[in-house]
Design brief:
binds guanosine-5'-monophosphate; 178 residues; four-stranded antiparallel sheet; Rossmann fold; alpha/beta; 23% helix; six-stranded mixed sheet; binds magnesium ion; 3 helices
């Protein structure tokens, strides 16, 4: 499919499944090296990171502990700037290496908040792995430790990402037609 329609908007094919999967495969190799001999806690950020999490964890193919958390700071097609803790991390992170798995970093507001929160709770090393990164939209000094692909600040859907709850299930990534 080259084009999809969600609610009132048209989207066009932007990144193929093959391209995103090979980027995740490369990321998995780097992460695998960095976590050798450690006991990291992976935290998948719902809902958007569900497909990225499955892709990455399958590549890592190890005994790693994985938990899920949920925050919200994004409505419609632009960010609101405030973070709600809908389902915070429940595992004790004290003295542990924590690797957050996020679908996309836009302004950085959400992950900046969550990473600082985990550090306050005593995590030894808090890292961020993101499937996609929009550096031009960044509003804080956050830099992801592991990035799949860098993209321009367009609004995208697919592979976990939604437009008002539709579009998460597509295997490819689409961008809003302007
Ligand atoms: P940030 O806090 O970095 O501004 O926003 C991060 C969150 O906003 C992501 O986890 C994601 O849920 C949402 N988001 C940011 N950019 C996009 C986008 O282009 N498309 C969609 N569907 N969600 C986005
Ligand atoms: Mg998200």
């Amino acid at each position: 499919m080259d084009r999809i329609r969600l609610w009132d908007k048209e989207f066009e094919l932007f990144i193929s499944e093959q391209e995103i999967r090979s980027a995740i495969m490369e990321m998995a190799k780097t992460i695998k090296k960095d976590i050798e001999g450690k006991n990291p806690l992976f935290v998948s950020i719902l809902n958007g990171a569900f497909m990225f999490t499955a892709d990455l964890m399958r590549e890592l193919n190890g005994p790693y502990e994985l938990t899920f958390a949920r925050y919200s700071s994004y409505h419609g097609t632009s960010t609101t700037g405030s973070v709600n803790e809908i389902m915070p991390v429940k595992v004790d992170v004290k003295d542990r290496m924590v690797i957050l798995l996020e679908d996309i970093i836009d302004t950085g507001t959400t992950m900046n908040y969550v990473m600082n929160r985990l550090r306050t709770q005593g995590a030894a090393d808090v890292r961020l792995a993101t499937m996609l990164y929009k550096p031009e939209a960044m509003k804080c000094s956050l830099v992801p430790d592991y990035t799949g692909l860098i993209i321009p600040p367009d609004f995208i859907v697919g592979r976990g990402l939604d437009y008002d709850e539709l579009g998460r299930s597509y295997r490819d990534i689409y961008k809003l037609k302007v």
